Amino acid sequence: MTDQTNNIAGPVRAHKPPRTEFYVYFAIIFLATLPLACLTWALHAVRSGSLTDKGPMARAWSQARIITPMIFTAP
Asked: What pLDDT sits at residue 1?
């Protein structure tokens, strides 16, 4: 018979809400990517001759959403 009272794998980690440090890094990265996002959006608008559906704020926001978690999950 097996002993099922011991938890060999360790405690299960619950999902925690983002801390203040995450938001600070997110804001810094967002502000850093905003000028480049404006530039690429403007170049794309000039080349295509129309305004795109994804503006510079959305571009910078998505870049910050991609980069920030990478910082916190790096070993």
From this structure: 57
